[in-house]
Amino acid sequence: MDCVAQANKNLPQQKTQFGGRARSGAPVVTYTFIGLNVLVYLLQWIIPGFTNQLVLAPALAAYEPWRLITSAFAHSTSSFLHLAMNMYGVYIFGTMLEPRMGRLRFTWLYLLSAFGGSLGVLLLSDPLSATLGASGALAGLFLATFVVFRSNKQALRSMGIILALNVALGFVISGISWQGHLGGAILGILGACCIVLIPRSNPQRARTQILLLTALSIALLAAVYISTEAVKWPLG
Questions:
Q1: Amino acid 11: pLDDT
Q2: Exposure check for the chain: N or C terminus, fewer CB within 10 A?
Q3: Can you state the angle between helices 178-196 and 135-148, rounded to 10 degrees?
Q4: Residues designated as active site
Q5: Is the pLDDT reported for residue 49 higher than 70?
Q6: Residue 27 pLDDT > 80, yes or no?
């Protein structure tokens, strides 16, 4: 048995299309993010005032920084459709991206997109506005899919139509945060480029991806910090 275990360790690890560790079975990270969103939604119904502690209010973000990420896992309790549409999108794009990127890279991409959505809200929304929803993360996954399938004209055409409709709805229908969509989309593209555009022939491919994602994350956190300080609402 020890010999078999040692032999298995010596086998080269299977890699995904973009250098992550290949794993069989369901896209666990995608399902985990969906499960977290659903769990938070249930808690919003069960715990009085819970939603108010999660939403992103730019003027309060410097004092309550958890809102920058919790707002990406909370949804409007006035309409189940808000949660359902976002989770359907996460499922569609997550099952397309996670197997190609691997769990670590996909998780990183999702969180970058979520924080990017918060940054968009901080920069472009009214300081006293309240925003919530996974739309920023979803926009990031959506635009990342463009990068992954950039050579597939049919897929790009179909996604382009969906993108145009979503952008139009963000400006026409009240309650949809186009600011969060924009921020998430930009970070989704940048994150995907860090993962996807490093050629297979690069012997340091994985290291380069991690370094670029780390640099992007640091730049994003710095931009978020500066933005929260700029819109800080004086208390007392």
A1: 45
A2: C
A3: 40
A4: 135, 181
A5: yes
A6: yes
